[in-house]
Amino acid sequence: MNNAILIVDDMEINRAILAEGFRDEYDILEAENGLQAIELLESNANIAAVLLDLVMPEMDGMGVLKKMNDNGKIVHIPVFIITAESSQKMLMDAYNLGAVDVINKPFMMNFLRCRIGNIIELYRHRNDLEEIVNEQVERLNKVNLSMVETLATLIEFRDCESGEHVKRICGLTEILMTAVSEMYPEYYLPRHEIEKVVTASILHDVGKIAISDSILNKPGRLTKEEFEIMKQHTVKGCDILTQIPDIMDNDIYNYSYDIARHHHERWDGRGYPDGLSGDDISIWAQVVAIADVYDALVSPRVYKSAYDFDTAVRMINNGECGVFNPKVLDAFNASADKIKFKEGETV
Amino acid sequence: MDLITELGELGVNTDEALTRFMNNTSLYVRMLGKFPAAAKDAKVTEAFQEKDYEKALAAAHTLKGVTGNLSLTPLFKAYTDIVALLREGQPEKAEALFSETIPIEEKIISCIEKHS
């Protein structure tokens, strides 16, 4: 438990009085000026409150408050201004910088102990609650992710696949999305957004659960009619996702929806279901599209055996699997080594 | 007569101070022992002589806090007024008040030093 009080005052007499008042309940740390106070705040994780004088050499009390705002410590550690100051402007400035209370010198020790003790209790309680909430959010995120993964595994069983396809798509999406984002500023996504796209890619084929076995697992080419039904997995995927929006975070839901619908669109507008072209297709759907095609090529399927890495790369570049955004293709080719390594790892 | 009683006769509110010091008389006496040096180090006289009123304000401010905490009531009142006068831009009045305060401060200091 945080059980130290940091006393900051340039006059030893003032520090001694405060130290005496709190010694029985708290560990006491003392600083003669603001700089020493900042050092002690950095090196001690158990400070429950700061008793701060305003007028001091080196760095004054306002300097300490500003620094604690910069490093965020003001949120978790209550700061009491203990001062002979009566200038209202200066006291208001201290409050505006996040001081919880201003106590005038000379103070009465018994009241001071009550005021400070109460606030320390309040902060402890709040810090504990914050920790509990963070733990719960983390647990909730884990549970949600495992529900998403469970759903994806169910689809794979239907699809007679090993369960590795989804993992590989995640890995490929991560590599490609990162490369595209680094190489082309217009497609830049911050790291935490890339992570959401990767999670969302898990459900790209969720609509396949609504496609009948005879089509889904047909050995050999599909007829035109069968292919039309197969194409429906994109739209059906969206229908399913709309029924279960609450199992994931809102952003991931939006990415999932977009990817499920558009991961078979092509740059020239000849994909499905909406025939979107160019950058009307989101960059994440474009990335998952190429990841999906690559993985289909290098994996054995009921109607074909697996192609080797070089053949798969050549077929994608030749446009044998549809036309892709040249920039995404560049990122794909630039990441070839990483992709090949990844495949060696998982197969 | 002991220090506490004698200071009481000079107008020091020793009861209030002892409450502040959690009835730790020896700590109060020890901290009183630090006051003469603190008053000297503050260099209020020099600041007024140099007409450096910023410095005078900072020094008077520090002594206001210390005399308040030690309940050296006559000095605390004087320094409170000196700080206020300097803030209001009346350095001559502040200096005059400080001159009146010096003999009181010297009495208290010599009393503390006699007992140390």
Description:
The complex is a heterodimer of chains A (347) and B (116). Chain A is α/β, with parallel strands linked by helices. Chain A has 2 domains: 4-132, Rossmann fold; 159-346, Hypothetical protein af1432, CATH 1.10.3210. Helix content of chain A is 58%, strand content 7%. Chain A contains 15 helices and 5 strands. Chain A has helices at residues 12-22, 34-43, 61-70, 88-96, 109-158, 164-183, 191-201, 213-216, 224-231, 233-243, 250-262, 283-298, 309-317, 326-334, 336-346, and strands at residues 4-8, 27-31, 47-52, 79-83, 101-104. In chain A, α4 links the parallel β4 (79-83) and β5 (101-104). In chain A, α6 (164-183) runs antiparallel to α7. The mean pLDDT of chain A is 89. Chain B is mainly alpha-helical and 116 residues long. Chain B has one domain: Four Helix Bundle (Hemerythrin (Met), subunit A), CATH 1.20.120. In chain B, 80% of the residues lie in helices and 0% in strands. In chain B, α4 runs antiparallel to α6, α6 (53-69) runs antiparallel to α7 (73-87) and α7 (73-87) runs antiparallel to α8 (91-115). Chain B is elongated and about 40 Å long. The model of chain B has no long low-confidence stretch (mean pLDDT 89). Chain A binds chain B through residues 10-14, 16-17, 20-21, 53, 55, 83-87, 105-110, and chain B through 16, 19-22, 24, 27, 30-31, 34-35, 38, 58, 61-62, 64-66, 68-71, 76, 83-84, 87.
